[in-house]
Each structure stands twice: as structure tokens, then as C-alpha cells.
């Protein structure tokens, strides 16, 4: 059985897979090798290189493993038509992303950017605003694995957490839960609004100017899900109108963000260039999930982790 990678794990990681699964023919490339894909049974990818034409030509393909959580660039319809197993690495992002989110919140609350600027100017100034997380309220839109970890950390700081998802069903480390339908009702309560939503038909354009207008003027808005959650012009206008105090953005409608985009020069916008999930442990964790699933695959079992409902895209 041939397994094709379109990215190159470290040498010790490649050797570990080869030694653990000697019955498998592993092919590693830095990018997608179309000829190798035609005879591969399993394809391991970051999810941005696979096109509908590739699915058509990959007659032996039975399983696609995406070493990412996002699937919006995948040819889902063609994968569904071929009944190809699709899995991802949902859950491995929760530690680095939750730490990144908390770091930015604390940085704003404790005015770390201003402190850094004062240091550059050798300016001894105690006129630095500082506020506490304790006693505040955070609305987490998309309280899955990542959102739950964010909620856990925030609760440790004494923050009241409200989760918001499609159904309103209970999620881990949320003090309250609401559905998308009740979003406007809870936004005025939140000091921090964090979106960690995937890109689906239900989430694209979910937030509008009216949502930002209903938030506290002191609120921090953070988007760590997907850029198509909102129209960037709506967010820009909301910031200019002082509807909210800050926006921390890790994702954008078009990436990389163009150098002349107004967000770069706005004093109340913090740009994180889609790096919140970066970690030295990222590939390690991804390959751990892949190895467990590969063991099940080789044993002809069906207990796979992170199987994607292709019709929903998550």
C-alpha cells in the first residue's frame, strides 16, 4: 500500500513512520506529486493542494488525511462522490491557539505594546492604563476543542464564559450556552468576543456591522477562525466608529493581507498573520493522530478519529 505525503516531516519523523509501519510504502515530497498520487491509496496533505482533477485521476485513493483543521479549499464534492474517507487533525491546535489568544488579551489589558514603545524611547512613564481579566465576560463563538481550552484558561482568571454555537448545546468550560439565533442578545454582555468558527455556509458573513454596533465600546473582538466570518469593511467601520475598542485578527478574507490594507495602520488593530496555531509540536501531534488512524485502517477497523462529515465540511 502506498501513502503519499505532500509535505516533508522531519527526518526522524519520517523514519519513525517507516519503522512503525514496515508494510507501507511511504512516499514523501515537499509538494503534491501528481504521478505518485495516481497510484496512492492514502494521501496526507495540509489541504490546499488537492484539486477535483486530482481526485479524478487518483483511482486507488481511499483515504485523505488533512494535517490541518480547515477544509474549505478541499474538493469536498468530488471526495464525497468517490466515498473517500476524509479525516483531519482537529484538536491539535487547542494548546498553541489558546495560549496565543490569552497572550493577546493580557497584552491589551496590561498595555504591553505601550510599555514596549516607552522602552524604545527610554521613557519612564507610569501613565500606562491597566485593567484586569478577573470579573469580565468572554463570548466564545465556536466552543469546540480550541474554544473549550480558551474557556478553561479564562475561567482560571475568573472570567465568565458564554459559548455560542449552531445548536446552543452544552460545551466544555462554558458557564452559559446560546445558539447563533441568540447572538445579538448576548453580545452587549461580553467584554471579549472570540470567534473560532470554521468556514461553512452557516458561518460565512455571520457577523455584520450591526453585531459590532451592539457590542460594548470597550470590547475586544478576536477572529481566530476564518476571515469570511465578516466583511472587513464592516469591521473597519465599526472600529472607526468606536463601536469596539480593539480587534485582534489572525485570519483574513484574502491571505496574505495586502500591504496597503488599512488594517495595518489602524492603532486599534493587532494583526497576527495566521500563525496562532504554529508550534514545534504541531507535526508531532498531527502524526500521532495519523498513526492511530493508520493502525485502524491497516487492521480494517472503523474507529477513526476526526472523520469529516463531507456534506457539512467539518
What are the salient characteristics of this protein?
314 residues; alpha/beta; Rossmann fold; seven-stranded parallel β-sheet; five-stranded parallel β-sheet; 31% helix; 16% strand
What's this model, at a glance?
It contains eleven helices and twelve strands. By secondary structure, the chain is of the alpha/beta class. It has two domains: 2-92 and 280-298, NAD(P)-binding Rossmann-like Domain (Rossmann fold, 3-Layer(aba) Sandwich), CATH 3.40.50.720; 94-271, NAD(P)-binding Rossmann-like Domain (Rossmann fold, 3-Layer(aba) Sandwich).
Report on the structure:
This is D-2-hydroxyacid dehydrogenase. This protein is of the alpha/beta class. It folds into 2 domains: 2-92 and 280-298, NAD(P)-binding Rossmann-like Domain (Rossmann fold, 3-Layer(aba) Sandwich), CATH 3.40.50; 94-271, 3-Layer(aba) Sandwich (Rossmann fold). The protein is 31% helix and 16% strand. It is built from 11 helices and 12 strands. The strands form 2 sheets. The chain has a 7-stranded parallel β-sheet, with helices on one face. Strands 2-1-3-4-5 form a 5-stranded parallel β-sheet, covered by helices on one side. The longest helix has 17 residues, at 282-298. It is elongated and about 65 Å long. The model has no long low-confidence stretch (mean pLDDT 96).
Secondary-structure element pattern, one letter each: EHEHEHEHEHHEHEEHEHEHEEH
Instruction: Please state the structural category.
Output: alpha/beta
N- to C-terminal distance: 27 Å
Question: How much β-strand is present in the residues?
Answer: 15-25%
Largest sheet: 7 strands, parallel
List unreliable stretches of 5+ residues: none
Q: Which CATH top level class of the largest domain fits?
A: Alpha Beta
Provide the CATH superfamily of the largest domain.
NAD(P)-binding Rossmann-like Domain
Radius of gyration: 22 Å
Gross CATH architecture of the largest domain: 3-Layer(aba) Sandwich
Strands in their spatial order, largest beta sheet = 8-7-6-9-10-11-12
Q: CATH topology of the largest domain, anyone?
A: Rossmann fold
Domain D-isomer specific 2-hydroxyacid dehydrogenase NAD-binding: 102-276
Family: Belongs to the D-isomer specific 2-hydroxyacid dehydrogenase family.
Keywords: NAD, Oxidoreductase
Pfam family, one: 2-Hacid_dh_C
Amino acid at each position: 500500500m502506498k501513502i503519499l505525503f505532500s509535505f516533508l516531516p522531519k527526518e526522524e519523523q519520517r523514519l519513525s513512520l517507516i519503522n512503525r509501519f514496515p508494510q507501507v510504502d511511504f512516499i514523501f515530497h515537499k509538494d503534491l506529486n501528481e504521478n505518485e498520487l495516481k497510484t496512492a491509496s492514502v494521501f496526507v496533505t495540509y489541504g490546499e493542494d488537492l484539486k477535483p482533477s486530482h481526485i479524478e485521476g487518483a483511482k486507488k485513493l481511499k483515504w485523505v488525511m488533512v494535517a490541518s483543521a480547515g477544509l474549505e479549499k478541499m474538493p469536498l464534492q468530488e471526495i464525497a462522490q468517490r466515498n473517500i474517507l476524509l479525516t483531519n487533525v482537529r484538536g491539535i491546535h487547542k494548546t498553541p491557539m489558546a495560549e496565543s489568544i490569552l497572550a493577546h488579551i493580557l497584552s491589551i489589558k496590561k498595555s504591553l505594546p505601550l510599555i514596549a514603545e516607552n522602552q524604545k524611547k527610554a521613557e519612564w512613564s507610569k501613565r500606562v492604563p491597566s485593567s484586569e481579566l478577573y470579573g469580565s465576560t468572554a463570548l466564545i463563538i465556536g466552543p469546540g476543542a480550541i474554544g473549550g481550552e480558551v474557556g478553561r484558561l479564562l475561567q482560571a482568571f475568573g472570567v465568565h464564559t458564554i459559548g455560542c454555537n449552531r445548536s446552543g448545546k452544552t460545551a466544555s468550560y462554558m458557564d452559559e450556552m446560546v445558539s447563533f439565533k441568540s447572538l445579538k442578545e448576548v453580545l452587549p454582555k461580553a467584554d471579549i468576543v472570540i470567534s473560532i468558527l470554521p468556514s461553512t455556509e452557516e458561518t460565512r458573513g455571520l457577523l455584520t456591522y450591526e453585531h459590532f454596533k451592539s457590542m460594548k465600546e470597550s470590547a475586544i473582538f478576536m477572529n481566530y477562525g476564518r476571515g469570511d466570518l465578516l466583511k472587513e469593511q464592516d469591521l473597519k467601520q465599526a472600529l472607526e466608529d468606536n463601536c469596539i475598542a480593539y480587534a485582534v485578527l489572525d485570519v483574513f478574507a484574502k491571505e496574505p493581507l495586502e500591504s496597503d490594507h488599512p488594517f495595518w495602520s489602524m492603532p486599534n488593530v493587532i494583526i497576527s498573520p495566521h500563525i496562532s496555531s504554529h508550534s514545534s509540536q504541531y507535526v508531532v501531534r498531527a502524526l500521532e493522530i495519523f498513526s492511530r488512524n493508520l493502525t485502524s485502517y491497516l487492521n480494517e477497523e472503523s474507529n477513526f478519529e476526526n472523520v469529516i462529515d463531507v456534506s457539512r465540511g467539518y
